[in-house]
Specification:
This protein is of the alpha+beta class. The chain has a domain at 36-123 and 143-166 and 190-205: 3-Layer(aba) Sandwich (Rossmann fold). It has helices at residues 16-34, 76-93, 190-205; strands spanning 41-46, 57-66, 72-73, 99-100, 108-120, 124-130, 133-152, 157-177, 180-186. Strands 1, 2, 3, 4, 5, 6, 7, 8 and 9 form a 9-stranded mixed β-sheet that branches. Strand 6 and strand 7 (133-152) form a beta hairpin. It is elongated and about 70 Å long.
Length: 208
C-alpha cells in the first residue's frame, strides 16, 4: 500500500514588519521633502552711489536676533554665526569681497547693521496609520526675516537697505513600529538661507 504523498509546506507569510519598514522609509523621505525651504526673497534700495576698492572690506554687526520663542539676543556666538553666513552669501556673488572681523578694523568701507527674526506658525497635528504602523506628529511653518542698513563709512552716509526672507516646513512626532515608538523630526534651514541671501543682497547693493 502506497504511503500518501506529504502535503506541501505552505510558505511563511511575509512579516508585517517588512511593510512597516517600507512605510518608515517613505515617511522619512516625505519628511526630508517637507523640510525644504523656499527660495529666499531679496530686496534692496540704494540711497547713494556705491563701490568698493581693493583693500577695502565689509563688517557685519548683529543688532538683534529674535528667535521663535520671542526672546531677543545678540550674543557673541550669534554675531559669529550671522557674520559667517553673510560672508558665504558675499562670496557666492564675488570671492573678492573681504569681511572684516570688527566694524572698527582698518580698511572697513561698509558696516552692515543686521536685525534678524525667526517665527513659527501655530502648526497642525496629524495622524496616519497603515499596515501595522501609526504615526502622530505636528508640523509648522518657520519664517526667517533679515534686514540691514548698509553704512558707507568712507563717506559717512547710508548706502542703502537690504531685506530678505525665507520660509520652510518643520515638524516632529512619533511612529509606532510593531508597538515600538520611533521618534522623528525634520527641520527647516530658512534662517541660514535668508542670512546667506542677505550677503548676496549686500554684494548687489555695493555694485557686484
Amino acid at each position: 500500500m502506497r504511503k500518501p504523498a506529504p502535503e506541501p509546506v505552505p510558505e511563511p507569510a511575509p512579516l508585517r514588519g517588512t511593510i512597516t519598514l517600507r512605510h518608515l522609509a517613505a515617511a522619512c523621505a516625505f519628511a526630508m521633502i517637507a523640510a525644504c525651504t523656499s527660495k529666499p526673497v531679496i530686496h534692496y534700495t540704494r540711497e547713494a552711489s556705491t563701490g568698493i576698492a581693493a583693500g577695502e572690506s565689509i563688517a557685519v554687526v548683529l543688532r538683534s536676533r529674535i528667535g521663535p520663542d520671542g526672546n531677543a539676543g545678540a550674543a557673541e556666538s550669534d554675531q559669529q554665526t550671522i557674520a559667517k553666513c553673510v560672508e558665504r552669501g558675499l562670496h557666492e556673488v564675488s570671492p573678492r569681497l573681504a569681511l572684516a572681523p570688527k566694524a572698527d578694523a582698518p580698511g572697513v568701507r561698509y558696516v552692515v547693521n543686521v536685525e534678524a527674526r525667526t517665527s513659527h506658525s501655530s502648526g497642525n497635528w496629524e495622524t496616519a496609520g497603515s499596515g501595522g504602523g501609526l504615526a502622530v506628529g505636528k508640523s509648522w511653518t518657520q519664517t526667517s526675516e533679515f534686514s540691514a542698513e548698509v553704512i558707507d563709512v568712507k563717506h559717512g552716509r547710508l548706502a542703502g537697505n537690504v531685506s530678505t526672507s525665507a520660509t520652510g516646513q518643520e515638524g516632529g512626532g512619533v511612529m509606532l513600529i510593531l508597538i515600538l515608538p520611533v521618534p522623528f523630526g525634520y527641520w527647516s534651514s530658512s534662517e541660514s538661507k535668508a542670512c546667506e541671501a542677505l550677503g548676496k543682497g549686500v554684494a548687489q547693493l555695493i555694485g557686484y
